[in-house]
Amino acid sequence: MLIFTDLKCGFAGIGLETAKDLARRGARVLMACRDPQRGQKALEAVRAEATGGASVELLSLDLSSLQSVRACAAKVLALEPRLHILINNAGAVNVAHAPTKDGLHDTLQVNFLGPFLLTVLLVELLQRSAPARVVFVSSSYHRFARLTPDLLDYPRARELHAVQVYCLSKLAVVIVANELSRRLKGTGVTVNSIHPGAVNTAIFRHFPPWISLFFNAFLRIFMIVTYFVIDRACVTACVMAFPIV
Ligand SMILES: NC(=O)c1ccc[n+]([C@@H]2O[C@H](COP(=O)([O-])OP(=O)(O)OC[C@H]3O[C@@H](n4cnc5c(N)ncnc54)[C@H](OP(=O)(O)O)[C@@H]3O)[C@@H](O)[C@H]2O)c1
């Protein structure tokens, strides 16, 4: 299994909760993180929850680098005889609009192109391991996007608001997941995209502090009103992944 997750000061992300949940079920969990130190903390947190022979390992993956994605996929292919569940969880809303080393918009590459490349590189392994499941963590924000060619054009994408690029990247995820699902029909590999719910995580940390505080206050209130807690934030992804766990 492959999960993207990480551990941040004061916040727990959805990926971390997903990894804990799968480790509690005795799964072999590969967590792919970009920051080795935070990844190590996440690894310890997930290992502490593991039961029933679960094994939890850490892989290095920076989704804003196509080279890193290829290296991570190569490692999985070299080390893992089977892959039953691929959960593409990582996501970002980068306000800096910085281009990646590959010359693409960073939010677009992290949310959509990186996970898509990784999935394509692992699809044969998933097929050989069938029944298998791919879960793309998208967002209901995809509804606010209209797909335009600007998305792949870095200088043009830079003119868009960070939230607009986020919405576009999440719409691209939904479209690609649907198409992949159609192409893999009959192979035993199921592909879904999900909205995890509104969860008080550090997803808005790249915004100016007052905007970030405002969004997090909103998410906190939403979670109080709906009795939604962080460790339930992984439910949608796990429900999509479970049937074969
Ligand atoms: N929270 C919500 O209300 C909500 C709603 C709808 C959808 N979602 C989606 O849910 C998913 C998880 O988000 P979250 O709320 O748990 O936010 P989060 O706590 O910020 O988690 C996002 C994760 O993505 C990782 N990431 C960012 N850039 C990366 C890169 N270049 N390479 C590898 N990993 C990278 C982050 O790692 P670092 O710590 O290293 O940055 C972090 O662990 C995202 O896809 C998000 O769009 C969240």
From TrEMBL:
Pfam families: adh_short_C2 (PF13561). The keyword Signal does not apply. InterPro entries: NAD(P)-bd_dom_sf, SDR_fam. One of its GO terms (molecular function) is oxidoreductase activity. Keywords: Membrane, Oxidoreductase, Transmembrane, Transmembrane helix. The chain crosses the membrane at residues 210-230. PANTHER family: PHOSPHATIDYLINOSITOL-GLYCAN BIOSYNTHESIS CLASS F PROTEIN-RELATED, RETINOL DEHYDROGENASE 11-LIKE. This is Short-chain dehydrogenase. It comes from Gryllus longicercus.
